[in-house]
TrEMBL record:
Subcellular location: Cell membrane
Top-level taxon of origin: Bacteria
GO cellular component: plasma membrane
Chief subcellular location: membrane
Membrane topology qualifier: Multi-pass membrane protein
Protein name: Multisubunit Na+/H+ antiporter, MnhE subunit
Length: 163
């Protein structure tokens, strides 16, 4: 329980500092208070723990996952903007199932959120080994191609970070 509390406190405080954008003493103290409250509440419900490999995971997240995610998000934004500005472009909206090899809850949640944050896709449901996704322009019916189009670039990197 103590390791969960400390892990959540550290992560909450790092997020606070990143979002606050200020290192004034008042901001730091308020961040510690808020992070402590968050850690107290969440440590009862979470199994999150920082391990010795935490710096490696952060490095992978920042230098492996984020650049690909940002690039895919920009491409999807351009695609959706083209469709909005030119209504004659075809769309083929559909609900598709995307298989995933990810097992951890945080891994699947990160994948689902990454898909949802990419314009043109919206994760509707998360199952044991699949995600149900609304796709603005279904290009194929082959499960492997659907997986590659929607989650292929994210899944391997997320697995290397959270599993």
């Amino acid at each position: 329980m103590a390791l969960q509390f400390i892990s959540l406190l550290v992560i909450s405080f790092i997020i606070w500092l990143g979002l606050a954008g200020s290192f004034a003493l008042a901001e730091i103290l308020l961040g510690l208070v808020v992070s402590t409250v968050v850690a107290i509440i969440l440590s009862k419900y979470s199994r999150f723990r920082i391990g010795l490999d935490f710096p490696v995971r952060v490095f992978r997240f920042v230098f492996s996952f984020l650049p690909i995610f940002i690039m895919e998000m920009v491409k999807a934004n351009i695609d959706v903007a083209k469709r909005v500005l030119n209504p004659s472009l075809p769309i083929n909206p559909s609900m598709v199932e995307v298989e995933t090899d990810l097992k951890g809850e945080i891994s699947k949640l990160t994948l689902a959120n990454s898909i949802t944050l990419t314009p043109g896709t919206l994760t509707v449901d998360i199952g044991e080994d699949r995600l149900l996704v609304h796709w603005i322009d279904k290009k194929t019916s082959e499960p492997e191609r659907i997986r590659e189009e929607i989650s292929g670039k994210f899944e391997k990197r997320i697995g290397g970070i959270f599993e």
